[in-house]
Input
Amino acid sequence: MSGGGRHGFDAPFYPAGCHYRWYSTAEICMILDRFDAVVFIGDSMLQNIYAAFNMLLRENIAIGGLKQWGMAEPDRINCRCDHQIIRRGCTQFTVQNSEELRGNDGGSGNRSPYYCDRTLHIYLPISGSPAPDELHNTFNTILGKNPESYKPIPVIHSLSLASSLSWPAATSSMDEWVTLADASLRNVPILWVGPNAAGHLKPPGQILSQGNNALWHYTAGMAKEAGSRGLDSLGMYNLTLQATSWDGSGYGQKVALVQAMMVGNHQLAFEGRIHVSRDGKKGGLAYVLEMGHRFLQTPVASSSG
Output
């Protein structure tokens, strides 16, 4: 899905060598049911993808990425549709986790019906590495909730413009979260998501450091770094290269919805994926299967009557 492109500015995006499905809400729920949790860890680009993920789950494109139950009426009017993502005054209302929706989204008044409330999903905001201890504690709590479960806990991870495309910060962040995942002995497959391309409104002063040349090298370099750590990667460069950007860095609701659906398609590949840590130790399902195999191979001592 990382390859492909658009045949003209703002034309539909076609991936190269593969395809992705546009799942219904019910189908997204079926995908989520295969996991114990889904954790999004990243900067503002991933926050936008997570917002779009909630729009799909709530079947509310107008304001489904936001906590509208706690918003004043003028904010609910001014933060609709694209403005959920592109207006800075609206992003403060972005949904952070599924628990907020369970407690507040009852389907009446200024609320939206919420589907898929069986699987926890959460967004953990980072801008560099190491992340605050509070986020580590939250992550460890999620991984430790059901230690005997065979279900994976996928992590969607990204870090780009918040760290000024710092390669050391990105690789340090990968190592940071992989280390925590390994220590849990859970099956925690991690997907690295690359940055968006630069739009034509990118300020001239940022072209050298955050223009498309820098972004492409960062995309390719971090994909290799992810692969060397046993992580999958999903690039967003080609998807956004000929899309409309409101400020040269961020993209609107249409792009975010496509990105969320691409992540959802990739999550299907996580089912049954055996996560092997960098030191060769297996977690989650792999550990269960290995222990079961050893049990079957262990001779049973006979008892004399």
Q: What stands out?
A: The two ends are 64 Å apart (CA to CA). Strands lie at 5-6, 13-14, 37-42, 120-125, 155-157, 190-196, 232-236. The chain is about 40% helix and 10% strand. The first strand starts at residue 5 and ends at 6.
